[in-house]
Amino acid sequence: MSTHSEKHLDETLREEVVEHRAVEDSRRIEPADVLNPFPRYRKMREEHPVNYNEEEKLWVVFRYDDVLRIVNDYNTFSSERVFARRRQDEQLTEEEREAARSLLSTDPPRHKQLRNLISQAFTPRSIAQLTPRITEIVNERLDLVIDQGRMDVVSDLSYPLPVIVISEMLGIPTSDRDQFKRWSDAIVSPHEEEAIQASREMRSYFKGIIDQRRKQPKNDLISDLIASQIDGQHLTEPELLSFCILLLVAGNETTTNLIGNAFLCFDEQPEVMDQMRADQSLIPLAIEEVLRYRSPVQLLVRAVAKDTQIGDQAIQAGEVVVPCLGSANRDEAQFPHSDVFDISRTPNRHVAFGHGIHFCIGAPLARIETKIALTIMLERLTNIRRVREIELEPIKSTFVYGVKHLPVTFKRA
């Protein structure tokens, strides 16, 4: 968004999109700066670990211990109150405001009820059952490019893979995946008008699917959610819509950027690919280090429920705090030599998937998709190298980290 248009945002709308723009000042100059915010994070940890952003009227928190406290202490740092601020936006209808509510914007006890319900689809057993299909998809995607000796890791693999998997879980056509990608990218972008429009289109789309499943249930997650009950009551339509949108967007963005970010890391240390090819037991360790080193989600947002203190700063009830996961995962106090990508790092208690009650429910799926993708790529391809003549283009988001495209060359194994 341009500086000129920013001046015309009213205060209410600024609050509604605050999580999209919380650290935009660190990401306005060049793509290289967007993809390397880590020197700034270090400077903030050392000089302003709890920093008040006067323009956005919020606190950004950079140190690991402070971030961990915020994501764990839901009584003090509320997700529900952030949602309550958004409900005041006059641009949204009441139905749209209710549909915007999800696991990400509820506190206990409702959060626990909703999480317990959806977690049934993400048990270790359920995820393990997806392994053959994920393997099939990865091989199909590589079959399309293996004779070319080059591919775009993002558009050819890391984007279609999770969209196909989540689409099949929900029971919706994967033929619509290009549309899903457009919606997903718009929702995580810093441009609130695009995000609102994409959300409206997604709600309309899923409303049609839900109406179909009510009349004719199928063996899919949407049908299961329609039939599910909490304390004897079925989920409301806004709750069903929020589940569908959250699963599609989160399932897409997390895995897409985790796989892409992995190859950004391997590009800096190509010997890591040789190590994993020789010993596949290193692949899960490498994935955890990618999550720490280049976290797909860099920021969260919380509203302060009661007066508190973070570090030396007194924070008043009603204020907004933004825990910076990307900075916490580079905190030297928790991770010695934090700016070194080290797949043998142990322990590796990163917070890339959050922590506590809001720990990413799709984390097991993202991990297994990435593990299978890396395993098969290392088995079928050698000498994987990024095409450096093509400049990396960061995705347009202030809280999701990744690149739009990642062209590589390779040789068939």
Automatic annotation (TrEMBL):
GO molecular function list: heme binding; iron ion binding; monooxygenase activity; oxidoreductase activity, acting on paired donors, with incorporation or reduction of molecular oxygen
Annotated keywords: Heme, Iron, Metal-binding, Monooxygenase, Oxidoreductase
Gene3D superfamilies xrefs: Cytochrome P450
Coiled coil, from the record: none
A Pfam family that the UniProt record links to this protein: p450
Family of the protein in this entry: Belongs to the cytochrome P450 family.
Protein name in UniProt: Putative cytochrome P450 YjiB
Organism in which the protein naturally occurs: Reticulibacter mediterranei
